[in-house]
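call fold(seq) -> tokens
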Amino acid sequence: MPPRRVITGRSQEPRRRYAEELRLLRTARGESLRDLAKVVGWDASLFGKLESGATLGSPELAEALDQHYGTPGLLLALWELAVGDPTQFKEQYRRYMLLESEAVNLWHYGVSTIHGLLQTDAYAHEVLALGGASGKELDQQVEARTGRRKLLEGPDAPPFRALFAETVLRTPLRDVAAWREQLGYLLEATERPNITLQVLPLSSGLHGLVSTDVMFLRLLNGTTVAYTENAHRGELVEENASVERLLRAYDAVRDLALSPAESRKFVLRMLEEVPCEPST
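ret:
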């Protein structure tokens, strides 16, 4: 079958399409960026960044613009497509991103950092900056990562078990307030019915996943794939025997971990240990 012909002439790439629609809707009304800012309530420079594709903004902003333009749900839908577009990610992650969005069950073990689905904006910013990104590129990477959090929201969100080594909680952000925010976000996550958090204490000793971050995705067809990652590379594992070996190692690690209730208390103790910022 030949590829579908683009009739409208508008971009089929989600991020560019969102920016294009925003610009077309504004100019059709004869509004300047400053006019729009006065009516909707955000800064004019932000609208300029939206229309250039430099940022996607928030879902709240997309909803406010839908209300302003009388396009109920249109811009929010385009925003969701742009945030979830796997082409924003590096090539080795693209297939994983597609599978993650389709998974009906997810479980993870982390030895280095908090998983991206549970990262605050500030945490994601500091982690991604370590990879060398900066400026506009870094902002886009942070936006793409934190936008994935929507996967775990809503009544149909898949179950997610996040198991991570105690060292993850012993490695704070440089900014004290940002670290407090991240720990608080983890505690909030434990209150959601689809999210389970467990901490593996240092006293557990060596185990089969001692140097490996791994994410398992159960798909609609009943199969499970795994994504393993270390400091230098990531690998999507789909061969059944290899996935089963990783699952057995994961089960053994989970048996060593604190219970969800004990893990929540552990995170709370960590939060209480973070010094409060001095009052000004």
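Residues 14-84 form a domain with the 434 Repressor (Amino-terminal Domain) fold (CATH 1.10.260.40).
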